[in-house]
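Marked as duplicate of an earlier ticket. Keeping the data here for the record.
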Amino acid sequence: MTTGAGAFIASAMCYLRVSGADAGALLDMLSPRTVSDLPVNEARFIVFTTPAGTVDEEAVVVRTGPSEFMMSCGGGKQPGWLALMAKKFDDVMIQPSDVLSFNIKGPQRLSAVQSLVCEDYQDKIASLSSFQSCLVKTLVGGEARIVRSIIGYEVWAASDVLVAVWKQLVVDRPSIVPCGWELLSIYRLECRAILFALFPVDMHVGTNLYEIGAGWMVPKIDDGREYIGRAALTQERGRKKIWLAGVRAVDDTVNPPLVGCEVF
């Protein structure tokens, strides 16, 4: 993870397709952070909230068309108020998606993900900024969507395509190391690019957005937009209680501890 590229399967997430003329308006009602203003092919990290202003679910939401959004929910469930709020909109459809994903992290992540797609699409991937996406053709056949985040590249595709790409990665791409949960836990502790919090480990129904360092999602000026948890988060404004922090080694020559080791 510190010198090459590691691949993490994300099949336990909940993948949904939300479509219809009011799909963006529906999703805007579930979080202080909007998605209706996203251009097509751009993505956004969203924390969905409860009426108490605490964390209901987190997701990466990608606008895949003028009236369609795809999202991967990290807690493995759809936002708790999604179905209820959808009743306000006759034209919105919420469907389970056949898309799954894995993500590639590490300093060689760009060249790693480029090695999985046809050459014609490699420059397209390289030109992506954070939270932009593009459609590509994979070397094993089939279409995939590459989503760039701050710390990696996510490969979204139908399950049969994703399985074929993963097999290629395992068999023919020795520079990409398949990784498990333990390595991801170590990476989260060492990550300096973002505050790498997971649902429901670090953020959950017992933590509000200010406690997890996500208070910046709450609009600084009350624009009157209604969303789940608005009253509670407005009341909490200014009470910043960030408690999550990454572990920093004071001596770079010391190897990071393994998961389960005692830390002093």
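See parent ticket for discussion. Residues 159-172 form the longest helix (14 residues).
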